[in-house]
């Protein structure tokens, strides 16, 4: 009921003619309401689909989505206006497995926003979702209508399912009052969630609510003005990383501590059991990189305002990576060089790394744009063509040992002073092979004096 505080309560849609069919609501006064029926009937998205918004135009208004297949990506979309004034008004993103019998796999929700919904923002249920990542997204609970009558949305994330595994990374969850997220609670289910580097802000109720068979590793998260980061109870298992870290014992690596500002306590519950369960999930439990990646494409992205590198390859490396048509913006209030230019830009290491940088704009940096190579027993080959460097106050190219670079077109900054690494700058276009014949990561080379020497075939002729 309303608290006469300027905010409105949510009304409840009565299904089946009685309060017993409302999902736990009791009491209340019968009123007549109107709502949009389309928001309650979700649009189905089958497997092997990507829904990606262009610019700011990717808004889905008044319709939720049901994902019913593997390999689905939702990116750069905003789902909003799903009957926010009524409970059961509509879920934004709903998953229950394929035909509710087989767990989904490889679901990625990235750079999305959800606001003004009647029920949950994200739901997994029944068969569940075996592998889902929710990243870089905005879950905005600010609303005129709420179950808690305070302008904060209560129904946020509901993670159930016979076999459910979720990673929540780099998200912003704010203006909520509950279920942020609710994890587990049903018998014969297993819900494992890794929650890292997320920001909870201005949450008036509880965030984490654990039920039976819910297992959580929470690390590196920031809680700001969050009344109750963890709902009271004894069910479920959660390890909330602190400075006294137990992760090494179970996972073979350290976990980043959580930070709480003007917030309640966030302590582990059956923490050892949570870590023991999560140990069996390889994507969470291992920090070892042994196999080189292949066929990675970063296209039409923008990176700005980061604390460290914009793009990093390391350890086993990336055998084939293309970075194209992208904007790397180093403008910042804070910089290692104290001049408003970001220093840490690209770091290309790796046992076997091959990178093509094509048609990018790299500006307002002061170093490592890129840094290529520098470690023994590695081999880093980079082809850099038709990029623009602008307003860079320091060095761009910084070469280390076992680095091999072919830049084409104009370079706006010279490399950092070093005798390490190898680069070939063509004076005239005839000195290079056609682009489709350029040597890649498999370029011919031989050892000489402990270092690898690069050989690029040339035709005899004028220089």
UniProtKB/TrEMBL annotation:
Task: Provide the GO MF annotations for this entry.
Answer: pectate lyase activity; pectin lyase activity; peptidase activity
Among the Pfam families in the record, one is Pectate_lyase_4
| Example GO biological process | proteolysis
Region described as Disordered: 435-463
Q: Which residues form the Pectate lyase domain?
A: 8-229
EC number(s): the record gives 4.2.2.10
Q: Mind listing the UniProt keywords for this protein, alphabetically?
A: Disulfide bond, Glycoprotein, Hydrolase, Lyase, Protease
Give the catalytic activity.
Eliminative cleavage of (1->4)-alpha-D-galacturonan methyl ester to give oligosaccharides with 4-deoxy-6-O-methyl-alpha-D-galact-4-enuronosyl groups at their non-reducing ends
Q: Which domain of life is it from?
A: Eukaryota
InterPro entries of this UniProt entry?
Pec_lyase, Pectin_lyas_fold, Pectin_lyase_fold/virulence, PEL
Give the matching Gene3D superfamilies.
Single-stranded right-handed beta-helix, Pectin lyase-like
Q: What does this protein do?
A: Pectinolytic enzymes consist of four classes of enzymes: pectin lyase, polygalacturonase, pectin methylesterase and rhamnogalacturonase. Among pectinolytic enzymes, pectin lyase is the most important in depolymerization of pectin, since it cleaves internal glycosidic bonds of highly methylated pectins.
**What is the official name of this protein in its record?**
pectin lyase
What is the protein's species of origin? Phytophthora nicotianae
